[in-house]
Design goal:
410 residues, 10-stranded antiparallel beta sheet, 8 helices, globular, signal
Length: 410
C-alpha cells in the first residue's frame, strides 16, 4: 500500500465522517489507520494489515445496494486477502534490506507471488540469518494471524457480531486451515522457472518451511516438492494440519458470565522461525474494563516453553485521551534454533495513546505509540532483535442510528 494511496484514503474518511448520522445512537464504530512506523516506513506487516482491515470494515458497514457493487466488494476482498498475505512475506525481505515486488493477482502458474529476488540473495540470507529465512516462508500466515487476532478482539471487547463482520473473518481462518491441511499431500506441483526474478521467493510456503527448518544445509532450490520430504517431515506436516484447527476457537463461540463480567475465549496457532506457537486468549469485559490475557506455548523440535501477555484497551485518562497498554513475556529457543535445548527469556511493552482534540468533535483521534522489545519473536514485528520503535496514526469514529446500527452481541 503506497503512502499516496493512504493519504487519499484518510482524506476520504475525513470527508465521509463529517456527515455522521444524527440522533440517538446505539454504537460507535472505530476505523484505525497507521501511516508511520519506524520499522519499514509504509510497507510493514502491521501497517498493511491494520489499514486493509479498517478499509474492509468501513466498506462492509456501508454496504451499497445492488448486485454489481457487492460483486466488486467480493473481488476487492479476495484481492486484499492475497495482497496482505503476500505483503507478510515481503515484509521479512524488507526488514533484511532486500527489495522485491508483489504480484497479488496470479502468475502463469496460477498463484500470487513475491518476486524480483535472485537465488544468490536468498542463499546469502539463509546462510547468514536462518531464522529470518525460515520466517520468510511463514510470513503470509503470520499476516493472516495478525488480522484474525484483531477481529477476535473486536468480537470479544467491542460488541461486534460475527454475522455482521463481513467475509473477512471466516474466509481468512478457513483459508489458513485449508492451506496448512492441504500441505499434507501433493495437491499440485509447480515447476521452477529459469527466470529467477519471476519465481516466487519461496515456492510452496509450508513444504519449504519444513525442509529448510529440518535440513538448512541441503542443496538450495526454491520450489520444494512434496516428494523431497522425509517420513518424519511429513509426520510434522500432519501435526501442523491438526494444530491449525485450534484457530477455530473464537470469542463468538465460547463465552460466559462470571461475576457480572463477560468472559470469552480465543485460540490461535502459528508457525514461528524456530517451530510453532499455541496461543490461548481470555477476554474480559465489565463496564468500562476491556482486558485480554494470553497464555502461549512455544516449541521447537523437541522442547517447549511458555509465555504470557496482558493487554488493557481504551483506558480513559481524561475526556480527550484514552490509552492501550500491553506487556508480554516469553521464553524462546536461544538464537531461534529448531534443535537447541537452551531457551532465553525476553519481553516487550507497548503503549498506545489516542488523543481526541476538541475541534475533532469526536470524529477522529490522533494516535501515537511506543514499542520496546528485547530479542525475540513477536507476530507482526519485523525484527527479531531488540529495539525501541514509534508509530503514528489516526482513528476515525462513526455513530450509527438505532435503525442503521449493526446488531450488538458479545
Amino acid at each position: 500500500m503506497s503512502r499516496k494511496f493512504l493519504i487519499c484514503t484518510i482524506c476520504c474518511f475525513l470527508k465521509l465522517t463529517s456527515s455522521i448520522s444524527q440522533g440517538d445512537s446505539t454504537t460507535v464504530k472505530s476505523y484505525p489507520f497507521l501511516f508511520f512506523d519506524t520499522y519499514n516506513k509504509a510497507y510493514n506487516m502491521r501497517l498493511v494489515n491494520q489499514n486493509f482491515l479498517s478499509i474492509h470494515n468501513y466498506l462492509w458497514d456501508h454496504k451499497p445496494e445492488g448486485t454489481l457493487p457487492r460483486l466488486i466488494f467480493v473481488f476487492g476482498h479476495l484481492f486484499g486477502m492475497v495482497y496482505t498475505h503476500e505483503a507478510g512475506h515481503q515484509n521479512v525481505l524488507l526488514s533484511e534490506g532486500i527489495g522485491s515486488y508483489i504480484t497479488p493477482t496470479w502468475n502463469k502458474s496460477g498463484l500470487a507471488i513475491v518476486g524480483g529476488v535472485m537465488d544468490n540473495t536468498l542463499i546469502n540470507l539463509r546462510d547468514r540469518n536462518l531464522p529470518a529465512y525460515i520466517r520468510l516462508h511463514t510470513g503470509g500466515l503470520e499476516a493472516d494471524y495478525g488480522i484474525i487476532r484483531r477481529i477476535k478482539v473486536d468480537i470479544a471487547l467491542n460488541n461486534h457480531n460475527i454475522k455482521d463482520l463481513g467475509p473477512e473473518y471466516s474466509t481468512r481462518i478457513w483459508a489458513s486451515i485449508f492451506y496448512l491441511s492441504s500441505s499434507t499431500f501433493k495437491l499440485y506441483s509447480i515447476p521452477e522457472s529459469k527466470d529467477q526474478l519471476n519465481n516466487d521467493i519461496v515456492g510452496h510456503d509450508i513444504w519449504g518451511y519444513i525442509k529448510h527448518i529440518n535440513r538448512p544445509d541441503a542443496p538450495f532450490h526454491r520450489y520444494i516438492q512434496f516428494e523431497e520430504l522425509t517420513a518424519n517431515e511429513r509426520a510434522q506436516l500432519n501435526r501442523i494440519a491438526i494444530s491449525s484447527l485450534f484457530n477455530l476457537l473464537g470469542p463468538g463461540k465460547v463465552k460466559f458470565l462470571v461475576g457480572g463480567s463477560k468472559v470469552s475465549l480465543g485460540g490461535s496457532y502459528l508457525l514461528t522461525p524456530f517451530g510453532d506457537m499455541f496461543e490461548q486468549s481470555i477476554f474480559i469485559k465489565k463496564k468500562n474494563l476491556k482486558l485480554q490475557t494470553d497464555l502461549r506455548m512455544y516449541q521447537n523440535k523437541y522442547y517447549q516453553s511458555i509465555g504470557f501477555g496482558i493487554s488493557l484497551f481504551d483506558k480513559k485518562i481524561s475526556n480527550n485521551l484514552n490509552i492501550n497498554l500491553s506487556a508480554n513475556y516469553w521464553s524462546q529457543p536461544s538464537e531461534f534454533s529448531f534443535l537447541t535445548k537452551q531457551f532465553k527469556s525476553g519481553g516487550s511493552i507497548d503503549v498506545l495513546g489516542k488523543w481526541m482534540p476538541k475541534f475533532t468533535e469526536g470524529k477522529f483521534s490522533i494516535d501515537g505509540a511506543l514499542h520496546v522489545k528485547t530479542k525475540g519473536f513477536e507476530p507482526e514485528e519485523p525484527f527479531l532483535s531488540d529495539g525501541i520503535y514509534f508509530r503514528l496514526g489516526l482513528t476515525f469514529y462513526q455513530k450509527f442510528k438505532n435503525d442503521d446500527s449493526i446488531p450488538l452481541s458479545v
